[in-house]
Amino acid sequence: MDDPTCPSVRDVGTDRRGDDCPRRARSEWPRERMHRDGPRGLGEVDLLALVLRTGDRSRDAWTLARQLLARCGSLAALAELSPGALEAVPGVGPAKSASLAAALELGRRLASVPLVRGQAIHSPDEVQRHFAPRFRGRPKESFHVLLLDARHRLMSIDEVSVGTLTASLVHPREVFREAIRQAAAALLLVHHHPSGDPSPSPEDRSVTDRLSAAGRLLGIAVVDHVIVAEGGFYSFQQAGCLDASALS
Predict the structure, then answer these.
(1) Which helix (H) or strand (E) is 222 found in, with range?
(2) DSSP classification of residue 235
(3) How far apart are CA 145 and CA 132, in angstroms?
(4) In this predicted model, what pLDDT tens digit does every residue of 9-63 receive, in sequence order?
(5) What distance in Å separates the CA atoms of residue 131 and residue 114, rounded to the nearest whole number?
(6) Of 4, 54, 13, which Cα lies nearest the Cα of 31?
(7) Residue range(s) in the chain whose domain bears CATH number 3.40.140.10
(8) What's the CA gap between 221 and 9, in Å, rounded?
(9) How far apart (Å, rounded) are the C-alpha atoms in residues 161 and 141?
């Protein structure tokens, strides 16, 4: 069976491949190279062509993959595109965009060190390792709440809001509702900065103070607020803005 990532014999040398696509022997087609060399032996264009599987009326999958990477500038930039943005790229469409988005998300999840239910959380480093790959490429801030028991073991993770962090968007009512329902003893707050700078804004500090005060009234401690970004992370607890013994 012909490799859909490369043109069939009758297409070789025609304009379907594009003038800048090199003529390659069948042994150098992506699927053949995958079987021979394994995935580590393939370049980004070959791997992307295998995910795309087919091209369009004027290009085979390898040419489409090469042009897609050139258009984005890098694999990291490609990973930042939403499924809708991928679908809008000429030659991609809904089926290929879904496959690409799924493959990229699997990569993010494999790159993370997941937090699991029942795991005791001792430091913001654990939080950063879990969330950094999941936040990568998201254009908007998202705010998450980790519910903890009395021994700071993870009960659940809930996404509370998406958008720039403000007091109106992250209301104590929304943050503590699930904590009260599940009888959580403590909360750990997490959100990310798409800008890449984890430094807290004045609004970040205001929201943290407000939620910490609400937690004291409810008897549910806010043990930390971790801001995750490409440039690292910021922990309110490590910075001395929250109880320094909270995660010990």
Answers:
(1) strand 221-229
(2) E
(3) 15
(4) 333 233 344 434 456 677 677 888 888 888 778 888 888 888 888 888 888 888 8
(5) 8
(6) 4
(7) 124-235
(8) 67
(9) 8
